[in-house]
Amino acid sequence: MLRLDKLTRRFGDTTAVHAASLDIPDGQMVGIIGRSGAGKSTLLRLLNRLVDPSEGHITYGDTDVAALKGRELRAWRSDCAMIFQQFNLVGRLDVLTNVLTGRLHEMPPWRAMAQVFTPRERAFAIRALDRLGMAHTALQRAETLSGGQQQRVAIARALVQEPRILLADEPIASLDPLNARIVMDALRDINRRDGITVICNLHTLDTARQYCDRIIGMQAGRIVFDGTPDLLTTQMAREIYGAEADAAFDETATSTALAPSAARQRVPA
Amino acid sequence: MTDLPLAGDDAPRDAVAVFERHRAELRAARRVWTVIALGAFGLCLGLSVWVSQFYPDRLAAGLPRIFEYFGTILPDLRWDLLFEGRTAEGRAVPGSLTFWYADLWTYLELIWETILMAITATLLGAGVAFVLSFPAAANLAPNGRVYWVSRRFLELCRGIPEILLALVLVFMIGIGPLAGVIAIAIHTAGALGKLFAEVNENASPRPVEGIAAVGGSWSQQMAYGVVPQVAPNFFSYALLRFEINVRASSIIGFVGAGGIGQELNRVISFYSDDRVLAVLILVVLMVTIIDLVSERIRLAYIGRETPA
């Protein structure tokens, strides 16, 4: 169970996240929605401590996440994998090495610095890539791949971390509809099959409704909605999105609005 | 389409009028700064001419003397004896190339030593620069204190002229190439460290964040997130520095720190005859060849790293 207690983060005069309190049980797939600048991204970065909280607590089991430092903090990040909107791969390294960086925390320092990986680690990485259908690109430079392919490599990197939680910061916002669906299907598969908690920032409502067990709505740094998709009324959603409501609801206007996987023929290629 | 009013009744609130007024203000302010900058530049130029006494008449008076000196170091070659070998007693015939370049092997040995000095100094300096370029990059430094210390250290390294360092080192560890190598290496560390740090500051933060997010330590973030991005630039700058160091190590011998400069200094102070030109020609040849080869390597490498 991941528990946030009055978690707050300020940047100068602006409060990006304001007193966020949440309980997220293990194995849930959570979608965080809200307009741009609502604090979704900061909330996610607070969870793996890429951003430090100004106030409040984060606990996982009996670990006080907000107080972790040094090696323990790195261990937490290794347990709490993250994928990014812009993938954040190392473009000039090959795909396999990119995935293997997910093991860095488990490796002895000299091997990590010398970039020496054991056959077992390589096999583990290749299996993760294969699960995402990317094993054939293993020896290519990451920068030669398309956006959708890079995001799948990034998911493979997260998988080899053997995380307990997977954070996804707008994972499909830079992708075309087909790749967006592949990525979201992969995240749901990881959630269902491996039982990993997935917390996913999404810009569009339909994607959140379709893939997530639970939706959290954020507005100006505050959590204004928390419940199952069917509890999220149109009225509530309009409030969360404000002026961006029409863009977020209109499936034809956004590239990331997804049709259900069962109805593939409806997805424009 | 109807014509837009250029200045309607509500002129102050009209978008065009507001824009034009703003633009005029901006241009006026810029003009003032241009005049001030030009004035300051002119003043500095005049001051530096006066201080250095860079007057045309002095230059005109000195010019003939340059040729006078070149006259004294020109070899006295004779066409009929040019390719004459040594005599049976092992003497070179005056007027032949063999006579002019009687010490060729000494020169070549020293040129070889000069190149080795440049290679060693570049490798040592680039190594230190590489290590320090990460803490000395504003975006990568783990904290302000480390950043400040490494920046100041690099400044110190490149702030002291090589020749001065060499002079001190010759006193400390004696005459010979070691002093020269260390002097050039220190200067290289400072100069390359700054350049490397600037390359690091332009590196994309995304891969670094990616490595941070998998639980990578600071050094792992550097090794995996930054180094692959900056390696081609580092290599290119290091080669460029090698070219500079070849020139530097052929001069540094003047203070006894090894290499061909030591011989150049000796022939200038003791003989000032055709031997000076003999050495100078070899130095120029060496520098030119090294520059050409190094540039070839650099261009080939950059071409391979950045496909069109």
Automatic annotation (TrEMBL), chain A:
One Gene Ontology term of the molecular function aspect: ATP binding
Domain ABC transporter: 2-245
Source organism of this protein record: Roseicyclus persicicus
Name by which UniProt lists this protein: Phosphonate ABC transporter ATP-binding protein
Presence of keyword Nucleotide-binding: yes
Alphabetized UniProt keyword annotations: ATP-binding, Cell inner membrane, Cell membrane, Membrane, Nucleotide-binding, Translocase, Transport
Annotated GO CC locations: membrane
Automatic annotation (TrEMBL), chain B:
GO molecular function terms attached to this record: ABC-type phosphonate transporter activity
Topological type in the membrane: Multi-pass membrane protein
Span of domain ABC transmembrane type-1: 111-294
Transmembrane segments: 32-55, 115-142, 163-186, 276-294
Subcellular location(s) of the protein: Cell membrane
UniProt keywords, alphabetically: Cell membrane, Membrane, Transmembrane, Transmembrane helix, Transport
GO CC terms of this entry: plasma membrane
Cited Gene3D superfamilies: MetI-like
Annotated family: Belongs to the binding-protein-dependent transport system permease family.
Protein name: Phosphonate ABC transporter, permease protein PhnE
Originating species: Roseicyclus persicicus
